[in-house]
Amino acid sequence: MWVSSISRLTLKEAFDSIPEGILFSQNSQIVLINKVMIDLGKLITGVKITDSQKFWGYLLHNQNNDLIKKVIFGEQIIVRTSDGKAWTFTKDLIKAGKRSYVQIIAADMTEVDMVIRQLESNIKCVSKKREDLLYMLNNVESLMREKELTFIKYRVHDVFGYHLSIINQLLSSQKEIPLAFNELEKFIDNWPKEIREDSLADPEEFLDNLITSLDNIGIAIAVTGKLPINKRTAFLLYKIIKEAAINAVRHGGATQIDVKIRYQSSNVSMTISNNGELLKDHIVEGGGIGSMRYWLREAGGSLSITNVENFCIFVDLPV
Length: 319
What we know:
about 325 residues; alpha+beta; Beta-Lactamase; Heat Shock Protein 90; 6-stranded antiparallel β-sheet; 5-stranded mixed β-sheet; about 25% strand
């Protein structure tokens, strides 16, 4: 009898020394429970565990509060307690001969949970940055267009201001009326050309502005080679670079765009690639690619696309 009592006591001490919480029940009644599970039950529910079914139901259905935060993951329940620890609860049916028992185990996963929390925080941070990036990206094109239009607007103002003063001098001069109107007619014929040429005067500057704007939001554009001397061709390539860069970031999440410009005889070729994700489905040519293809077709050029190792646009255009 004495030996039997010692054996039971030793068994109980060994059971209580297990770092996991363990509970065995039959027909919801507790058969065996160690100290870790007793303490956890009080911490989580506020009372001693007497019914395993009610305890598991509490874990499943009780709302988060100041004492616990829980996450249901498959058949596991992760509980974050007010003392800063995290436990994962699992329930299994154990059969011993003709008898069946319910086993509930609580495993300490505090260290793993710290990593999970850090990952959750990083994911939230990345998601926030992604939202900010998409917001800024959606505004880059409109901002660039606004800048270009503003540039043209001020140029129109400058050109008209200057030439209107010339008109005023012509009309008030001592020149004969026919001569004055001949010079006025030249101005009327030339001012649209002046405005258009000046708006295309420095596509390299527009490209530098695009590179700077995207660099400010963490997107790098590396350009090898120079834009053509021909202003119209240069501006067309700039527009394609801008459209391709915006599409690469918007649809592929790219952070690096590489542009290579080469010249061969009377043609200029341009390759635009990026480090974004490859498109899984068939490429649907929407407004971006469609616009680029239209611009090139109007200028006698061509456009082709590959989506194998990376997404790449090939442009060929007469200089």
